[in-house]
Amino acid sequence: MPTPIKATAKGGIAASKSGAVSYVKFSDKLTTSINDIAKIIEQHKEMIDSIQEVALELTSSIGSLHVLTVKYARTANQILDVLLPILKNLPVVPKNVMQLLVNLESITQKIIDNETNTSKTITEVQSGLKTGDVNKLKAHAGQMQSLTRTISSIIPKQ
To answer: What three-state secondary structure class fits 84?
Structure first.
């Protein structure tokens, strides 16, 4: 007859003198792990909440900057739409000034063209941050990266 086994302190099994089989229960191991995770979260609660608050403020600031940028881009674009055709026919305007104005018009148009996508992304990320919806944040992480690339591409190289 085989020797009975029992759980060891390290979660294994060992022979028991009484003949009964004993073991470490999975539920005990999982409970210990969950309790450890809860302690870690509680220890870092202030940091986690601070990161969320900063992220909310950043998205709010980005949203405000976006509204301001689009407002002035529209104004500049309207002015350039009137001025460029006139200035193109004036021989006194240097070519480098004309090129600068054409580039400026292109930049303002890109800002205007991206307004809807940028606004939507900012709003969705802010919503995910407010509701603690990690899936929504994950879904929009790529859009935020795309938004950053778009903004970076608009910034003139020096």
So the answer is: helix
pLDDT in tens, 24-82: 888 888 888 889 899 999 999 999 999 999 999 999 999 999 999 999 999 999 999 99
Angstrom distance (rounded) from CA 11 to CA 6: 10
Beta strand spans in 87-142 (E): none
For residue 108, the one-letter residue type is: T
User: Full-prediction pTM beyond 0.70?
Assistant: no
Task: Give the span between the Cα atoms of 48 and 50, in whole angstroms.
Answer: 5
Are residues 17 and 31 in contact, defined by beta-carbon separation less than 8 angstroms?
no
Domain borders along the chain are 43-154
Structure-token match 């210990």, residue found: 32
**What's the whole-number mean pLDDT along residues 7-26?**
63
- The two beta strands, 13-15 and 5-7, are antiparallel
For residue 100, what are the β-bridge partners? Answer: none
The residue whose two tokens read 């899936």 is 135
